Amino acid sequence: MSLKNQGSDLMIRFGVAENIIPELVSQVNAVEVFVEEEVEYTLRKMIDFVDQSLSTLTLSQKRPQIALWQTPFYDIKSLKELPTLYSDFEKLKLSPTSPLECPGLPRCDIELDWGSVPTFDDVKRYMNENPWKPSKSWSSIKAVSAKNILKKGRFGRVEMENDMIEVLEDSVERNQVNLGSEWRAQRKRLENSAFLSKKGNVVGGRTSVVLNALSAYLRYLEGTSKDEWQEVHEKLRNAESRSGASFRALFGSALFLGIISRRRVYYEAIKYERERNAGFLSPFGYSAATIAAAADTVCSMEWYWLMALKSQRNNEGRYSVRIWRWNGYLIQYTVVGREGPAIVLVHGFGAFLEHYRDNVYDISEAGNRVWAITLLGFGKSEKPNIVYTELMWAELLRDFIVDVVGEPAHLVGNSIGAYFVAIVAGLWPAVVKSVVLINTAGSVVPGYSSVPITEERRPSGAAWLGSRLLLFYLKLRVGNIVKNCYSTNTGRADDWLIDEMLRASHDPGVLVVLESIFNFNLSIPLNYLLEPFEGKVLIIQGMKDPLSKSEYMLSMFKEHCNGVIIKELDAGHCPHDERPEEVNSFIHEWVETYERKPQLC
Q1: Contact at 8 Å (CB) between 205 and 194?
Q2: InterPro entries under this entry (predicted)?
Q3: N or C terminus: fewer CB in 10 A for the chain?
Q4: Neighbour tally for 91: CB within 10 Å
């Protein structure tokens, strides 16, 4: 309806983009295909496929071209000149661009099959016929949360994994049967609502509906008699897991889908701020927490999008960086190798995928496919305003294996990253072949009788203050701290590594990540998590680790974890970077030995 009001229309097609787009181009004799510029690997790959298909067309005019467009938040002429530090970027004092008025569009007078809005059954049929669709047993692994598995207990986790497929299928069948009647009932109830469901917090619908919900959000401090605004205020309170977190929880999907742009949100927030302050903007901050939440969130999102876009256009790093979107957040990763077993490398706290700088290629050259990921909150991956927990990071890793790797993998982790790996292995063993723990965090608890389940965590005043003091200390002492972790080869803690850690410490959202240190709960015993993996666990331990008692840790593994293999190294906390050749050899031999053994199904 919106397009028709502007003189155009919406065309709907099902199928493979590289087949359908060239067909349409040939029909209308087009010379350009306008495509929104994306940063995610899968979407950029699809655009490349379409471009390759267009190159095979022979039209009367010149070869059809892909024309990339975007809604720039800032007027940046060249991404090559984008500062690496967010603090330097802020010093540029770039003014956000203003949103544009809806343009009139040229009428299309050619006779075309415009298609029709599909029914639910049409969409379901198309998805089921998709040859690249993963099996239900694989994709359903993501359906059950870590907390639910832990609540089930040690004897129930395998049964839960086996049963979840049937539960999901039953649920889908029931939902399909009841969809028509439920939707009709909800439609009337939600007619004036901006939310896609009564219980959920996701704002959706047409642009005018989302903008109305944004106005309600910004004006939270004002009283209102509007039912739809009162609903927004109620959802805001429920979604405020920490100060300012509610904005992205409510509007993240609308921003991702392009119903509204980041610059439109900023424009509306600043316009309202001026209304509250007689046309002025205070140099001391915003006058309402909701204005700050909206403006700060979209500015932060734009920074990470620009960094992601720069990594895709310039590709100047040690590896070819790809972008994966998880729950709406931008995650960086790399993959090397075309065949062989899948191996996933997971870094520790404060590090990033490049911490495996001398491991990725060497391990892949031994006949493996190697993925390295920069976890949410670290490196150049996004640092959103959320509550970070060890279970959240574990679920991210689980989803990465399911969505990106696409098959069970050998998981390798260092420090806290090794603890995340252990959680994934213990709670979702179907996605893991074997586990390699390098100077892991966590502990072995003899004779544990139960597994503690952490309740929802809220940020504390102590964590707020502690994160700021810690950041100040880290910026002053990060070089010495890192060198101290490289006990026998301090030269590996070089300027590049330290500079990259310092760079990340300037990113927006870093204080929220640091707060998680004061709320970490590593109470799930490693021996509980590794119990299903007897004979499939390799422990690599730097014996001069200043952060742990290596001798004691290894003695506990030997006594309480059956079938673990232990390799000791004359190294500190990060043996994979301090002694990469030896660690690479251990991992290569371990994976090769595993793959040669017949595995029980």
Answers
A1: yes
A2: AB_hydrolase_1, AB_hydrolase_fold, Crypto/Photolyase_N_sf, DNA_photolyase_N, Rossmann-like_a/b/a_fold
A3: C
A4: 10
CA distance 347 to 433: 19
User: What would the two tokens of residue 542 be?
Assistant: 């730097």
Query: Are residues 206 and 88 part of one domain?
Result: yes
567-599 pLDDT, tens per residue? 999 999 999 999 999 999 999 999 999 998 876
Cβ neighbors of 31 (< 8 A, separation 6 or more) are 61, 62, 64, 65
**pLDDT for 110-148, tens place per residue?**
888 888 888 889 888 888 887 777 777 888 899 889 988
Which pLDDT belongs to residue 576? 98
294 and 377 both lie in a single domain: no
Question: 226 and 370 in one domain?
Answer: no
Q: What are phi and psi of 441, to 5 degrees?
A: -80, 175
Based on the fold, state whether residues 212 and 259 are members of the same structural domain.
Answer: yes
91 and 231 co-located in one domain: yes
Number of domains in the chain: 3
Which amino acid would we find at residue 224? T
| Rounded distance between C-alpha atoms, residue 436 and residue 343, angstroms | 10
Residue count of the chain: 601
Pairing of β 432-438 and β 565-569: unpaired
217 contacts 228 by C-beta, under 8 angstroms? no
Q: Confirm if 385 and 509 have CB atoms less than 8 A apart.
A: yes
Task: Output the domain CATH number for residue 401.
Answer: 3.40.50.1820
Q: Which residues neighbour 480 within 8 Å (Cβ) at sequence distance 6 or greater? A: none
With b meaning 16 or more CB within 10 Å and e meaning fewer, what string describes 308-332? bbbbbeeeeeebebbbbbbeebbbb
- Domain that residue 572 falls in: 317-451+522-596
